[in-house]
Amino acid sequence: MTDRYAVFGHPIAHSKSPQIHATFARQTGQDMTYEAILAPLDGFADSVVQFIAAGGRGANVTVPFKEEAYKLAKRLSPRAQRAGAVNTLSFDDSGIVGDNTDGAGLVADLTRNLNCHLDGKRILLLGAGGAARGVIEPLLEQQPTALVIANRTVSRAQELAELFGNGVTACSFEAADTPFDIVINATAASLAGELPPLSPTLFTADTLAYDMMYGRDTPFLSFARTHGAATSDGLGMLVEQAAEAFFVWRGVRPDTTAVIAALRT
Ligand code: ATR
How close is the Cα of 127 to the center of ligand 1, in Å? Predict the structure, then answer.
């Protein structure tokens, strides 16, 4: 019987995940389907339970349900535990298992696709919400010399810095004013077409500015480019987190390069 997978979100119509996973499945010869499911804002858990009853084997979870998915999971991978959020669910006889592949997806995109190695680098992470928290541990594993979290609400950045330790520090946007090798935008500002109040001195010709959002030239990317930085949107992260989820479910690693190229066109 064909195995069923899905992505749950609200909204979900825009999701590229069905297309990405269909390509992975074709590429690797896996017998599976993958659909997008619009869960009601107050009905995420019910939707997942219905999907399991209908034979679902696993699911991705996107905005705004990642924290709910964390609570719903009976067991959590260590990386999901540290992220405090779940984007990948697996359903087996033992119940619902939660994982988080977002951070691995970001690191894979930076290191493999963009050839931007993080060891010994100074990283500035903008934002202190769920998106930022999910990538801190995988970034630290790459052994940067500095990881600074800057956020509009500084206390949230401080909480994350204390939670993760390992020399992570926190500040306001305005206080970050020295050059960084990598500046990652994990704020929701790009969604609103807004630019956090960043100093141009963050960027040099050696800086990579990375926006987790994809499909649009954000004010952040355009500001960074104006001040000399190389830039990337988050499309590669989207595909890489999907590939990692695919590996969790199927035990096979799909080739992401062709998928990223196809989505770009
Ligand atoms: P997500 O899961 O996408 O991270 P979140 O937990 O609501 O969503 O966090 C949103 C992040 O974007 C926060 O860091 C938020 O800053 P505050 O903690 O000060 O709220 C940040 N953010 C949202 N809109 C922003 C804007 N217009 N400019 C700068 N930062 C913004």
Answer: 6
